[in-house]
Design goal:
This is Probable 5-dehydro-4-deoxyglucarate dehydratase. It catalyses: 5-dehydro-4-deoxy-D-glucarate + H(+) = 2,5-dioxopentanoate + CO2 + H2O. The two termini are about 30 Å apart. An 8-stranded parallel β-sheet has the order 2-1-8-7-6-5-4-3. Helix content is about 45%, strand content about 10%. The protein is built from 12 helices and 10 strands. The protein is an alpha/beta fold. α1 links the parallel β1 and β2.
């Protein structure tokens, strides 16, 4: 299935940088992706939630995916965002295949929701348009039931399920239903700041998770992942308590900050990725100040416990009146 054979490492969801005129900054996107490859992601997911799929035209999605595929150069799987209105979903799926992507993450249909038959039919219409394998994303208007996943597991192009709802009981039922088919689907935790909930998801048989933090602070995200897979509970809990928990508190202050804070964090580290597009909003200066302090706290948690993630930061970019945050990207 086009190079998708497991995801060994943090799942990287890059932002979509915009230049001063509001256009996709292809060169900066390539640099952003290439820099993060040094931290060993298990896959790259361009033009998805963190990449502001909701705010991109079909042509822009194609541009983002092409640039990401070129930057990755076949080193890890590239899973492109697709979804929304059926016509838009098919158009972005076809352009992703033409760009050389290895698979698709199907974001929910636009606005409307239907029956299980309707949702399964929507997925099958998209899978019929290309040869690419797909991961379905359970959230918003795409509410997959155990019955739906049993049926979709019969489609060899459906290779994974990502949960963005957070109903652990339902997620457990879906895991069991998928296992009963004999298929080994890739199962993901797709909740915002998934590190905070991944302990629970691992307990029900969902071992993979997406990390928006990896885009802005790969040192901390990689350290958490190593602790997670290595059973280092002391490090895992230290990072959860000292970094991820306060990050979630800041994120929850404003709707949409799951994306906005990542872009702000990159800007604080000297990477000019531009603002988010409406209807999302950027943090206030006071919130950006607190975010910068929090990024520094995360890095200090590593330094004070002899963590030395690679590659090392090469320069320093400091926000006003805050501690220095090593630049990334």
């Amino acid at each position: 299935m086009s190079g998708v054979s497991g995801f060994d490492g943090v799942l990287f969801f890059p932002v979509t940088p915009f230049d001063g005129a509001g256009r996709v900054d292809v060169d900066l996107l390539g640099e952003h992706v290439q820099d993060r490859l040094g931290y060993g992601p298990g896959g790259v997911f361009p033009a998805c939630g963190t990449g502001e799929f909701h705010a991109l035209s079909a042509a822009e999605v194609a541009t983002v995916v092409r640039a990401t595929v070129a930057a990755v150069g076949g080193r890890v799987p590239v899973i492109a965002g697709s979804g929304g209105p059926l016509g838009h979903a098919i158009q972005t799926a076809v352009s992703a295949q033409e760009a050389g992507a290895d698979g698709l993450l199907l974001l929910p249909p636009y606005l409307v929701s239907g029956t299980t038959d309707g949702l399964v039919g929507w997925v099958e219409a998209i899978t019929a348009a290309t040869d690419l394998p797909v991961i379905v994303y359970h959230r918003a208007t795409a509410r997959y039931t155990p019955e739906a996943m049993t049926r979709l597991a019969g489609n060899p192009k459906v290779i994974g399920f990502k949960d963005g709802v957070g109903d652990i009981g339902l997620a457990q039922e879906i895991v069991l239903a998928a296992r009963a088919t004999g298929r080994e689907l890739a199962l993901f935790n797709g909740l915002l700041t998934a590190e905070l909930s991944q302990g629970a998801y691992r307990g029900i048989g969902i071992p993979l998770y997406s990390s928006a933090v990896f885009a802005m602070l790969p040192e901390v995200a990689s350290a958490y992942y190593r602790a997670y897979v290595g059973g280092d509970e002391q490090t895992r809990v230290r990072l959860l308590d000292g970094f991820y928990r306060p990050l979630v508190a800041l994120r929850d202050e404003t709707p949409g900050f799951g994306v906005s804070l990542v872009k702000a964090g990159l800007r604080a580290r000297g990477v000019p990725v531009g603002p988010v597009r409406p209807p999302l909003v950027d943090p206030t200066p006071e919130q950006e100040h607190r975010l910068t302090d929090l990024l520094n706290t995360g890095l200090r948690l590593l330094t004070h416990h002899d963590e030395h993630p690679a590659p090392a930061a090469s320069s320093v970019a400091a926000a006003p009146d805050s501690a220095a945050v090593p630049a990334a990207g």
